[in-house]
Design a protein that fits this description.
Elements lengths: L2 E12 L2 E12 L3 E5 L6 H8 L7 E6 L2 E2 L9 E5 L10 H11 L5 H10 L13 H15 L3 E5 L7 H17 L3 E5 L3 H4 L5 E6 L2 E7 H7 E7 H7 L5 E7 L2 E7 L4 H9 L3 E4 L2 H15 L8
The protein binds adenosine-5'-triphosphate.
GO molecular function, one term: ATP binding
Keywords: ATP-binding, Nucleotide-binding, Transport
Protein name: ABC-2 type transport system ATP-binding protein
Length: 299
């Protein structure tokens, strides 16, 4: 598979604070990715950098093997951020025309279909749209651009659950007919688990974990039971989180369990549960928070 985006050793400093440090990220063609991280982890800084809005203090960004230089914004990328400011006096149709002029693969038929589907009036001024409708407008541009790399920063802001489901359904349908690379940065991890194929977790400005969603589904387990039994059981496993209560223990592992492991767990009275990606993420970061592994990245 071809690489569409490569970020190498990115550093971005704001004063003494490193918003990004030693950050490497590679995205392949025709894949949907999730980007997750706590508030202030560096997601928006990274996405702004990829889309050329800010420039790294160090490191390299290549889009389709072409280096992104200072001041460049790649036509291969459509970046939709709900934190972006749209001129309030501009009409919906004017913004779509601007986007259409920039993106070579723009599809007007699809854009008009989306306006109807989302009940967006093309003649309405952006300043008159509700918070959710502004998000829908951004999401519509991202979809109709059909850009080789489409990046959404929190595409769910202001949307009710039905609208979020509708957006993700349309995204998947359109992606299956028009494959491209999509990067979704969101806090609603469970909602995108069915949409994304791979994910990245960013913490304190660097990538903490990357994997296929499928691997998390089969490898993340929550074990509860007697402390001594759990400690024995997990001695050869990758432990993500551990918490004792009385004689009991709760442990999260990131490992495949064999049939023999499952038999042993049953005999030792250890309960085994699969974890959702969102829960796994919460335990992973909770451990780092409580053990002090999570630090302020300053050099
Ligand atoms: N313009 C700026 N000036 C100074 N510090 C900044 C600036 N932009 C971001 N930061 C800092 O960089 C760090 C990363 O911020 P960023 O907005 O990338 O996080 P995020 O992961 O997108 O967070 P959230 O989920 O809350 O949107 C934070 O500590 C933030 O305070």
């Amino acid at each position: 598979m071809k690489t569409i985006l490569e970020c190498k050793n990115l550093l971005k400093r704001y004063g003494k604070h490193n918003a990004l440090i030693n950050l490497d990220l590679t995205l392949q063609e025709n894949t949907i990715y999730g980007l997750f991280g706590c508030n202030g982890a560096g997601k928006t800084t990274l996405l702004n950098m990829i889309s050329g809005n800010i420039f790294p203090d160090r490191g390299v960004i290549n889009v389709n093997e072409k280096r992104l230089n200072y001041g460049d914004s790649s036509k291969e990328i459509c970046y939709i951020s709900e934190k972006q400011y749209y001129f309030s006096g501009v009409k919906v149709i004017d913004l779509l025309e601007l986007a259409a002029a920039f993106h070579n693969r723009w599809d007007w038929n699809f854009a008009n279909q989306l306006l109807k589907e989302f009940k967006l009036n093309p003649q309405q001024k952006i300043g008159q749209l509700s918070r959710g409708m502004k998000t829908i407008l951004g999401n519509t541009i991202g979809l109709a651009s059909r850009a080789p790399l489409t990046i959404y920063d929190e595409p769910e802001i202001g949307l009710d659950v039905l609208m979020r489901e509708k957006f993700y359904r349309i995204l998947i349908d359109d992606y299956s007919n028009n494959p491209r690379t999509i990067l979704l940065s969101t806090h609603l991890i469970d909602e995108v688990t069915k949409v994304i194929e791979h994910f990245f977790i960013i913490e304190s400005g660097t990538i903490l974990l990357k994997d296929a969603v499928e691997n998390i589904c089969i490898s993340s387990h929550l074990l509860t039971g007697n402390r001594t039994e759990i400690e024995k059981f997990t001695s050869d496993k990758q432990v993500i989180y551990q918490e004792s209560y009385g004689k009991g223990m709760l442990t999260v592992i990131y490992d495949l369990l064999t049939e023999e492991d499952k038999r042993r767990a049953k005999i030792d009275n250890i309960s085994v549960e699969r974890l959702s990606l969102q829960k796994f993420f919460a335990y992973l970061l909770e451990r780092r928070e409580s053990s002090g592994e999570r630090t302020e990245n300053s050099i």
